[in-house]
Amino acid sequence: MPRTSNTTPRLRARPLTTPFHVVLVEPEIPPNTGNVARLCAATSSPLHLVGKLGFRIDEHSVRRAGVDYWHLVDVRQHVDFAHFVHAFQKDSPNGRLHLFSAVTEKSYLATSFQPGDALVFGRESVGLPDDLLEQYKESVIGIPTLGAVRSLNLANAVGIALFEAHRACGALGDTFLG
User: Fold this and answer.
1) Binding residue per annotation — 170?
2) What is the pLDDT of residues 64-82, one digit of tens each?
3) Is 178 annotated as a binding residue?
4) For all residues of the chain together, what is the average pLDDT?
5) Which one, 26, 109, 112, 136, has the greatest CB density within 10 A?
6) Which backbone phi and psi does 91 adopt, to 5 degrees?
7) What are its E.C. numbers (predicted)?
8) Cα(113)–Cα(116) distance, rounded to whole angstroms?
9) How far apart are CA 49 and CA 105, in angstroms?
10) Cβ distance 120 to 85 under 8 Å?
11) Proportion of the chain in helix, strand, coil states, percent, rounded to 5
């Protein structure tokens, strides 16, 4: 099959009027955050980076990492989770938090997603802090795995959750070439 050019129409869907928010709490691995940023650009979703990052996101660092779509992402930084929650409630007053963890009994497939909700993910090495999971225990959901792996890659988990949220609220049903 021949490669397509940049002018070849691609399969598209219309962005939501009220987007989902993707939240990474203290991400550690630059390529994962870069992949998540690409997902956010592809879905018109704001990307919230919370707490201490394991890398720099200044223009030089992003360009050096080969992330050529960073300018398409609405990146918002917050010093801690409390500051994120405050900003999120102002921006999306009806939005709910969905905290993703591998240590929960509730599947993301049993969750009702609504535009404006925030999908919250933790560090690659340890996930979300226990105190945060306890504070928001009614909002903790997970992606079940079928094999014996400890957890999914962060960017893969965000992709699964973000596109399921879009699918569940009908955002992917009206597609077109554009």
Assistant:
1) no
2) 544 667 788 899 999 999 9
3) no
4) 90
5) 26
6) -80, -35
7) 2.1.1.207
8) 9
9) 26
10) no
11) 35, 20, 45
pLDDT-derived band at 30 (thresholds 50, 70, 90) equals: confident
> In CATH, what number does 17-143+153-171 get?
3.40.1280.10
What pLDDT shows up at residue 128? Answer: 97
**Spans of all domains in the chain:** 17-143+153-171
Degrees (nearest 5) of the Cα angle 89, 41, 31? 100
pTM: 0.91
Whether 176 has a pLDDT exceeding 60, the answer reads yes
At 150 the pLDDT is 85
Q: Is the pLDDT at 5 greater than 50, yes or no?
A: yes
Is 141 annotated in some ligand binding site? Answer: no
173: which strand partners? none
Helices 30-43, 154-168: inter-axial angle, 10-degree rounding:
20
